[in-house]
Amino acid sequence: MGRWLEHSVTTEVKAPVDRVWHVWSDLEAMPKWMRWIESVKTLDDPDLTDWTLAAQGFRFHWKARITQRVEAQQLHWESVGGLPTKGGVRFYAEQPQVTAVKLSVTYELPGVLAPLMEPSILGGIVTKELQANLDRFRDLVESGYAAQS
User: Fold this and answer.
1) Which tens digits make up the pLDDT trace of 83-114?
2) Please, which of 17, 35, 46, 120 could form a disulfide with 93 given CB 3.0 to 4.6 Å?
């Protein structure tokens, strides 16, 4: 069993919580704003998705199951095969037109990376990338993007 790393990032979106939730819920659109995510495909079970991450010459694949969904409040997931990962995103309606989004991601450090990189260095890179992704999500929502789902 490897070492688990956890990261949490937050951003504030100038949009109502229902709209922010709707855009986030379009999981297959995540590659539009999540740079390392190459693809997300919803499987026959709408709570089961197939993910591919490609970064720095590495490619990781996993399936994730939504373990908790509370409309316009929170979404939690856990991998069920491939890269061990779990996490959640929470939505806080701070004002009628302002929503805080907090993303937390936990994953097991892949064995192939363990000898190559100190976990604290990798952690800093991942946290910075997650924050940039969440900020791209904010910009996408604020630009008026309409989710497909």
Assistant:
1) 889 999 999 999 999 999 999 999 887 666 55
2) 17
pLDDT confidence of 75, banded at 50, 70, 90?
very high
One-letter amino acid identity for 118? E
**Beta strand spans in 4-144 (E):** 4-13, 37-42, 48-55, 58-70, 74-82, 85-95, 98-108
pTM: 0.89
Token pair in block for residue 37: 């995510």
- pLDDT at 112 (0 to 100): 60
Residue type, 3: R
Question: 127 φ, ψ to 5°?
Answer: -60, -45
Beta-ladder partners of 50 = 41, 63
